[in-house]
């Protein structure tokens, strides 16, 4: 009866040798996937934050008082957007040398807003505000390199994230 039972010496080692490469490939793939998703979310957040934090207060003051719009495009707009982007990546893992901004345009327009105030008998009335509107647009590209060598053949050494930035926001307000 014992001669039919086979020896199982080394079976665990063979199974381990077959399973460990597959496990490591899956692990490295998940590490790279997590890294790419993290970079994408951080990049999108930084682009939005850059558009909200762009501060051209002296230009907005000039537009408010002269009622003449200001337009920046080309190199100057790209440089202003890149400077603001670089300020907003502090504390993130975004490499500012792999970010490029093209087709930038910044426009500041004058405007007016009428606010109807209903208060008591002595405080009701209309208040007229001078305003500025800041319009920002541009194309932002960011190259992500994978962390592990497993993803490099599949991703051709990098992935390029694109963001078509467009944001219009109300700037300064002042009562007449």
UniProtKB/TrEMBL annotation:
This protein's source sits in the domain of life called Bacteria
The answer to whether keyword Transmembrane applies is: yes
Keywords in alphabetical order, please.
Membrane, Transmembrane, Transmembrane helix
Q: What InterPro entries does its record include?
A: TadE-like_dom
The record's annotation in Pfam families points to: TadE
Q: Where is the TadE-like domain?
A: 10-48
Q: Where are the transmembrane segments?
A: 12-38
Q: What is this protein called?
A: TadE-like protein
Q: Which organism is it from?
A: Keratinibaculum paraultunense
């Amino acid at each position: 009866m014992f001669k039919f039972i086979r020896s199982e010496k080394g079976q665990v080692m063979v199974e381990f040798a077959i399973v460990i490469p597959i496990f490591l490939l899956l692990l490295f793939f998940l590490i790279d996937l997590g890294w790419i998703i993290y970079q994408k979310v951080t990049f999108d957040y930084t682009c939005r934050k850059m558009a909200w934090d762009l501060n051209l207060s002296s230009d907005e003051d000039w537009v408010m008082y002269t009622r003449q719009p200001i337009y920046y495009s080309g190199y100057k707009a790209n440089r202003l957007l890149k400077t603001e982007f670089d300020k907003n990546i502090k504390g993130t893992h975004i490499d500012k040398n792999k970010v490029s901004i093209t087709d930038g345009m910044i426009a500041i327009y004058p405007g007016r807003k009428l606010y109807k105030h209903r208060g008591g008998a002595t405080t009701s009335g209309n208040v007229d505000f001078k305003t500025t509107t800041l319009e920002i647009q541009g194309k932002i590209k960011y190259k992500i390199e994978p962390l592990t060598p497993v993803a490099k053949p599949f991703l051709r050494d990098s992935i390029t994230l694109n963001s078509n930035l467009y944001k219009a926001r109300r700037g300064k307000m002042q009562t007449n």
